[in-house]
Amino acid sequence: MLSISPRIAHTLMLPAMLALAACSQAQTPPGKGAAAPATASATAAARKGELPAVLKGIEKHGFEVVSEFDAPGGLRGFAGMVGGQQPTAAYVTADGKHVLVGSLFDAEGNEVAAETLEKLVAAPMSAKMWSKLEASAWVRDGKADAPRVVYTFSDANCPYCHKFWEAARPWVDAGKVQLRHIMVGVIREDSPAKAAAIMAARDPSAALLENEHQFDRGGIKPLPSISRDIAAKLDANQVLMVEMGFQGTPGILFQDAQGQVQRRAGLPQGNDLQAVLGPR
Predict the structure, then answer these.
(1) pTM higher than 0.85, yes or no?
(2) Domain range for 157
(3) Is residue 131 part of a domain?
(4) More confident residue, 123 or 56
(5) Of the residues 125, 145, 160, the one at which a domain ends
C-alpha cells in the first residue's frame, strides 16, 4: 500500500481515533472499591431515558452514542461507534459515575451486545457507507450489470493499484465483478493531473484502461490543467478516502455475504482475493 504524501498527513485524524478505540476496549476505568448505590438523580435519569453525564467524558475520545439497550447486572448499555467507524458498546454503572467501554461476556462466553451492535450500529453504518461510495465520482471497470461491485480508491501512479487491477482481470473479464475506481491524486506530483485525465475523458473507463495498459511506460498523459469541477471531485474523493479509514492506496471496500461493508487496505493477498472478489 502506498501512503498519502506528508502534505495532507495533518488531515488523518481517524486512525488515531481508532487506535484510541482499541485502547478503550482493552481497559476498564479505575474504580475505588465497590460501587455505591444508585443516586436518586441517576435513577431518575434512567427512568427518563436521559444520557448519563459520564458519557460526555468518552465523547472526547470519539465515542458517539447511537441507542440505549438493555444490559445485565444493573448496568445501562449504550450502543455507539468510535471515530464514526467502529461499533462499540459502553456500559454505565448503576451509580451513573463510571463507564466501561468494550466487550461484556456472559457465563457461556457470548458477547452480550454482539447482536445489538450489529442491528443498531453496524448494519445502518454499512448502508450509509455504501451510499456514500455510490454517490462518489467513480470510474467503472467492468460490465455495468456485473452482480458484484467492489470500490477501490486508486491513484494512477500506484503500483499496488495496478497489481490489484491485474489480479482482478479474471473476475472482471468474466462479467462477475465491476470495479469502481474512486480516483485520488496523492502519491506523486502529477497524480492529480493523471486522475483528472481519466475523469475528464470522453470515455473515463477507456482512459482508465489506457493508464493500466501503459502503466509500465508511464501511464496516461497528465492534463496540463485541471478544471474546477474535476478538482472539486478529486478533493471530495480524497476526503472520502480518509473518512473510510484509508491512509493510502489501494483502499478497497466490498459487501460480504451478510451485506456488511468490509475493508482492505492495500493489495489483497492469497485467498483473501476471493474474499474481496467472490468465487472465481
Answers:
(1) no
(2) 136-277
(3) no
(4) 56
(5) 125
